[in-house]
Amino acid sequence: MTEYSALARIEESLSQLEADSLLRKRVLLESAQGTHVRVDGRDLISFCSNDYLGLANDPALAQAARDAISEFGVGAGASHLVTGHHRLHHEFEQAFARFIGKPAALMFSTGYMANLGVLTALLGRHGEVFADRLNHASLNDAAQQCGAKFTRYAHAELDQLEEQLKKSTAQEKMICTDLVFSMDGDVADVEHLLELAEAHDAWLYLDDAHGFGVLDDGRGGMPASARKSDRVIYLATLGKAAGVFGAAVAAHANVIEWLVQKARPYIYTTAMPPMLAAALIESLKQIEAGNSRRVKLQQHILKLREGLGGLSRWQLMASETPIQPLVIGENAEAVAVSKKLLERGLLVPAIRTPTVPKGSARLRISLSAAHTKAEVDSLVNAIREISET
Ligand SMILES: *Cc1c(COP(=O)(O)O)cnc(C)c1O
To answer: Whose CA is nearest to atom 14 of ligand 1?
Structure first.
């Protein structure tokens, strides 16, 4: 044991996490990301990536990156405002804005940084953030760090949100929501949120990390009314269905201009390598032409829901997206089920508190267009078997 007391406290806390079945362990991926992976020396069928369209290891994307490496090398070498802003970034931003149906767009290195950048640039201590309680941690961190008042409403309880908005005296208001909730798979009621934003003169910030590429011909979960509204700011992350890395914010041109001036996680960091922007330009083409992938994904979702619908012990949550959570209950049991699936060669993560509310530990099954019907069947059968023992 160490004699350094701060370190000793950390070691105690780690032991406690272990005792509570809360110690996170990283598995070692030894293959490409995909539905068939090699993890810790074993070949497994994976139901846990966010690579919903199977693009992460797509040959055309990889080739686009290789071509860009040949021409431009691997590093951006500087921040966007110095000399790191490459024409490939610019090209992606324009293609993305056009696809999404917003006037302008800006790339960030990650969704986490984009959320932090948008909220800190648009809100300060005279502002107020209104946030769904199930929003992604990165949105919550951003809300806390921007210095605005942070008000949360119960998941999807828009009557409560309305009351909160009525009471607010903040100069700047922003409603922030996951568009597809990352641990539940349900979709926010954007039309209703936009009505509230209009009635109370608030921004509406939509984090579509899990909808972009998947919903509405790939454009994501934003309805036409929100595309047209100057008060709506849209975020897509590009490491999930898009299969690469990074994030892009689409909004009114002057919002984007303001972010270039003020968003610190955009300004004070090295630009994303141009080769990734090249891969993303190709990814966007595949997403636009990707209806057959989305149809296949939809078939898998229906198949899984049919297969697991009638389980007596565990409840599949009401989700129509590729995120299909099966609620198990206690942390330890969720971990045990995940382990039994692993013994059968199926990789499905157990999501525990504090990521999800206490008592709702779950398997977060995520489906990909790259799965086969037989693989979805094998998962359904394995879960049914385990539930009966
Ligand atoms: C994954 C995720 C993010 C973070 O995006 P990264 O690019 O991985 O940093 C933000 N919001 C939501 C809802 C997410 O699921």
So the answer is: 209
> What crossing angle do the helices spanning 253-262 and 111-122 adopt, rounded to 10°?
100
Cα separation of 256 and 118, whole Å? 9
Residue nearest to atom 5 of ligand 1 (CA): 111
Average pLDDT of the chain?
96
Which of 176, 184, 237 has most ligand 1 atoms within 8 Å of its beta carbon, as the pocket-test mutant?
237
Which residue is listed with tokens 């000793």?
Answer: 8
CA distance 143 to 351: 24
Q: What domains are defined for the chain?
A: 19-53+291-387 (3.90.1150.10), 59-288 (3.40.640.10)
Strand 232-237, strand 247-251: pairing: antiparallel
Which protein residues touch ligand 1 with a CB less than 6 Å away? 110-112, 115, 136, 138, 178, 182, 207, 209-210, 237, 239, 247
> Which pLDDT score is estimated for 330?
92
pTM beyond cutoff 0.90: yes
pLDDT for 257: 98
Which amino acid type is present at position 368?
S
User: For the chain, which residues score pLDDT lower than 70?
Assistant: 1
* Nearest Cα to Cα of residue 303 among 369, 212, 217: 369
Ligand 1 nearest atom to the CA of residue 237, by list position: 7
Q: Are 236 and 50 in contact (CB under 8 A)?
A: no
Strands 350-351 and 361-366: what pairing? antiparallel
Nearest residue (by CA) to ligand 1, atom 8, is 111
List the one residue out of 192, 213, 357, 237 whose CA is nearest residue 297.
213
List the one residue out of 388, 267, 386 whose CA is nearest residue 335.
Answer: 386
Phi/psi-derived region of residue 42, left when phi > 0, alpha when psi is between -120 and 50, beta in every other case? beta
